[in-house]
Design brief:
Helices cover about 70% and strands about 0% of the residues. The chain has helices at about 10-15, 15-40, 50-55, 60-70, 80-120, 130-135, 140-150, 155-160.
Length: about 170
């Protein structure tokens, strides 16, 4: 049985909580049905009509019951609708898993790119003004605008970091 070879703890750690809940509900239902089938298989299916004939005085009732029992054919059900619903749920689950996989793969690519950028970046003390302007071009325009206005202080800098005076 394939369910016995699956490491459900490891699988649950890799899935989303709603998927884990659905999986656990399915496993519970499967376990209950397997137990019910095992219990039914253990029950005796033979009927000793001779014992009933010996006990009952009305043999006609026993004969009628035996005829009805031997003529009984279990009803067959068309399971196509249930199978169609199961297939639709399976397709939905597979689509959700594929979407999750694509999203995670995209995040992995972005994180790998970010890691490469971090690893190859120069330390801050080795950056030049040209490097900063190249990375954030709007800084150059902001500085030029501040110079034209005669504004030599960066707004909010002294409030945040305080006045830096070196006593001579």
């Amino acid at each position: 049985m394939a369910a016995k070879r699956v490491d459900f703890a490891k699988l649950a750690a890799a899935l989303r909580p709603d998927t884990v809940a659905s999986l656990n509900a399915f496993r519970r239902r499967h376990t209950d049905l397997a137990k019910q089938i095992a219990d039914l298989k253990e029950q005796s299916t033979t009927i000793n009509f001779e014992a009933y004939r010996a006990v009952l005085s009305n043999k006609k009732i026993v004969n009628d019951a035996e005829k009805a029992f031997s003529a009984f054919k279990p009803a067959t059900y068309d399971l196509r609708e249930q199978l169609r619903v199961i297939d639709a749920q399976e397709a939905k689950a597979v689509a959700a898993a594929q979407a999750t996989e694509a999203h995670i793969n995209q995040e992995l690519v972005e994180l790998k790119d970010l890691l490469v950028n971090i690893e190859t970046a120069r330390p801050v003390d080795q950056l030049t003004i040209d490097d900063v302007v190249k990375a954030v071009p709007e800084i150059d325009a902001t500085v030029e605008k501040m110079i034209k206005r005669g504004q030599w202080r960066v707004p909010g800098y002294y409030e945040k970091f305080g006045e830096f005076n070196v006593g001579f």
